[in-house]
Design goal:
Layout (H helix, E strand, L loop, with lengths): L14 H10 L3 H14 L4 H8 L3 H14 L18 H11 L15 H11 L6 H10 L2 E4 L10 H8 L4 H7 L7 E4 L4
Antiparallel strand pairs: 1-2
Helix pairs in contact: 1-2, 2-3, 2-4, 3-4, 6-7
């Protein structure tokens, strides 16, 4: 799409108005975009504007099209929403309540929660899969913190673990065999 130049570009806005907005603007990216608009309003071509601003011709063209579409406020970026959350607010509340109790109450042969165990629980009980780092972020958002445990908890229920290990899937088996020095979840201390 060809972008008009001279007085045809942003026909509802004068060159003085664009220059005034350029002078008042503090945001560096918006200032460069306004500079493109000023030069186009003065009748300059895209290759010239590109050489002055240091932006590629395709970028300059995109900026000018944005001004044509959105007017003088085309100098500002629109906030992107990002990907929607996989867990609903109700599921997050449920997860926080569950992680506040021991894993044994959920039928898991562990004394404390770890990130990997929480990931396993979310995948199998809430039917949502996350990467480990995202589980870590969710845990932090829920107000829990990571603490370093002893290598093996003194209240470990060996009998319950042995009984449970007889019939559970391979993914959970690898969790049992992991290094028990990995961080565990705790309620965050209130300051």
């Amino acid at each position: 799409m060809y972008v008009t130049k001279g007085n045809s570009f942003l026909s509802g806005v004068s060159l003085t108005q664009i220059e005034k907005k350029y002078g008042e603007e503090n945001n560096a990216k918006a200032k460069i975009r306004l500079q493109c608009a000023v030069l186009r309003k003065k009748g300059k071509n895209i290759p010239f504007i590109s050489s002055v601003t240091g932006k590629r011709e395709s970028t300059v063209s995109d900026i000018l099209r944005r001004f044509e579409k959105r007017g003088i406020n085309g100098c500002y970026a629109i906030k992107q929403k990002g990907q929607p959350k996989k867990l609903s607010p109700a599921e997050r509340i449920k997860l926080k309540r569950i992680l506040g109790r021991s894993p044994q109450e959920q039928g898991l042969p562990f004394v404390v929660w770890t990130i990997k165990l929480a990931k396993y629980f979310i995948k199998h009980q809430l039917k949502t899969e996350y990467v480990t780092m995202q589980v870590h972020r969710i845990i932090k958002e829920l107000g829990l913190s990571l603490q370093k445990p002893r290598p093996e908890h003194i209240k470990t229920n060996k009998k319950l673990q042995a009984e449970f290990k007889k019939n559970f899937d391979e993914e959970l088996r690898s969790l049992c065999e992991q290094d028990m020095r990995s961080p565990i979840l705790m309620k965050a201390s209130s300051h």
